[in-house]
Prior knowledge:
This protein is α/β, with parallel strands linked by helices. The chain is 44% helix and 12% strand.
Amino acid sequence: MAKYFTRLGDGEGVWMSKEEIREDVMAGINDAVTKGKTPNLTDDDIEKLIEILTMPEKNVSVERGNEGIMTFDAGTLKLPVRAGIPMDRMTALMTHERVLCSDTMEMCNVDYSYKALKNIVSEEAMAMELAQKNCILPIFYGAMPNVGQYTKPDGPLDNWTELLPKGKVKEAMAAQEEAVELASKDMIFVGTHLAEAGACGIQFDTCGASGDADILAALIAAKELSSKFPNLSIEMGMANEYHLGMHGKLQFEGQRLAGQFPAAQVKSVEAAGAHIYGCVVNTKSSKSFPWNLARSIAFVKSAVAVADIPVVVNAGMGVGGIPLSNTAPTDATTRASKALIEIGKADGL
């Protein structure tokens, strides 16, 4: 029986038969349908995915005409930090523009949280102004809401993850509500300064990492900034395929945030006036690459079907079907990219 090279969710290389791949594809889709209540993929979608997964080439590409836009989170950290190449942010920006031919790029700081950035926002604004003078491609400025940083000892609030096990539910909910107010103000403050310095867009990255309070703070900030700066592009990348209900009752525009899956998440992002929805589907390292990719496509396609704004899929280390390894293998990333765009109908990655 013919075997095809693929991977596990942790990046380990394995050989699987076509039937084994099909079995994992169907199981991954079923997981998304069952847990996320996504529509099932069509028979044509499934056959197309299996075809991509069994292509003999080491790396594959989209068909001409199916190209997607590439955006970045933690953009200027990728080369100096991930790849260990000693370069400053300006060099990283110009390298992405003039060597890697990136469609957009994100300037960011090593301390990737809006709470920390408010203390150095003037310096970051000057760096953005200089970047705009040296580059042509659209440059975003990005960081994470990270509402957990507003808890002690880094912030003024009690930590709800410590309060909840003690049964102090009301106190935990109140702390999160205060964190939403503090975080949204900081994001608006930083976003305003960077927009005035010439940023083409603002990126709210890993929204919801601390639960529904985290995503609410980002949505509030996005709504304020989109109203204040109509020409400023706002991208919101999620942290998970569903919002954790650490609070459980928080709402935005009348919709409860806890438990939202991509098809609901994208409508909340639209309601905030944001322009790009970054869909996230987390990779399960114990499952195979075919299982994870099939599951991701099901979630992505469900969001695209209802979206009125572009859907770009987080497709990197441990998300979008990509194996959970620090340096993602291109045999997996290229297949995921092709499948997410051609089958999931994503607008970009």
